[in-house]
Specification:
Number of strands: 0
Radius of gyration: 18 Å
Shape: globular
Length: 300
């Protein structure tokens, strides 16, 4: 298959959201909240109840995530010290490097590239990444002003976690969901794909590209160029092969997530820099993801 086709599909929807916001000036929060509180939990619930969960399916992305975050965090910390960045700037560099858009952009990318088999793996990865990534993002955005325990507690404000608990409980108890309900949940869940891509375009439309160009290029390079290398090394180290390897590498090589900007605004810690990183990395990802997809399809 052509590696360009999935990217063109994704970025055409993002551009449509961008143009729509430029002309209509819609309020983004209600649309984003609809995706966050209704559509995303539906997709997670559907994917987790569709296939039986085993220790292997959970542990593989978990081990990958632990090594992936640890290596990226370590390298970004060293880079921050080499360039003599302040403590707050080092935290922000770690934030935009570690926080990838594995949901809003990663899930559509995997769906358009590998179909529903890839989608199921991508959603499982998102669930496994959810708690540590969200907690770490909050901690980094706050530049250590809140302790790690408080960061973890913030995860219970994210509605997806309750869809995860419910799906795990039903799997554990062996309870089958009526087919009619499954169809409704699936329909709601699949709607999150275009909605979040439109929201991403709308958010980019309202983001001002401000901040030091060198630091924006540095952060985007680490997110788009360093992350795939680290992901590939971890996949080889853990001997992950086939479709799971492809999904993990592509999903973790996406640009900086908008959620990083939301946390930076909440804790008033360099929102202009984070906003610039989101915009620059998203624009450049059209090139880097096209190259990476071609490599991944040929390597695995």
């Amino acid at each position: 298959m052509s590696v360009i086709s999935p990217l063109l599909s994704i970025f055409s929807i993002i551009i449509l959201g961008f143009i729509t916001q430029r002309f209509l000036k819609l309020e983004i929060k209600p649309i984003s909240d609809l995706g966050l509180y209704v559509l995303t939990p539906s997709l997670v619930f559907y994917a987790l109840t569709k296939n039986p969960l085993t220790a292997k399916t959970l542990l593989t992305p978990l081990y990958f995530m632990i090594l992936f975050i640890a290596i990226l965090w370590f390298i970004s910390g060293i880079v921050g010290r080499v360039f003599r960045l302040s403590r707050e700037r080092r935290s922000l560099l770690c934030l935009v490097t570690v926080t990838m858009n594995c949901g809003n952009l990663g899930i559509p990318l995997i769906l358009f590239s590998f179909g529903e088999d890839g989608l199921d793996l991508a959603v499982l990865n998102l669930v496994v990444f959810l708690i540590p990534f969200s907690s770490l993002s909050i901690y980094l955005a706050a530049s250590g002003r809140i302790n790690p325990f408080q960061s973890v507690l913030q995860i219970f404000r994210i509605p997806i976690i309750y869809a995860v608990f419910l799906a795990f409980a039903l799997n554990l108890l062996g309870i089958q969901i009526p087919r009619e309900m499954v169809d409704v949940v699936k329909m709601l869940g699949m709607a999150v794909i275009p909605v979040f891509l439109l929201v991403l375009g709308m958010q980019l439309s309202e983001t001002n590209l401000r901040g030091e160009i060198f630091k924006l290029i540095l952060s985007s390079s680490m997110r788009l160029l360093l992350s795939p290398i680290v992901a590939l090394l971890v996949v080889i180290l853990l001997q992950i092969k086939g479709l799971p390897a492809k999904v993990l590498i592509l999903q973790t090589s996406t640009p900086t997530a908008v959620i990083a900007l939301i946390y930076a605004i909440r804790y008033n810690n360099g929102p202009e820099f984070v906003a610039g990183s989101v915009v620059v990395s998203t624009l450049l990802s059209l090139i880097t993801l096209a190259i990476l997809m071609n490599l991944v399809f040929n390597l695995f």
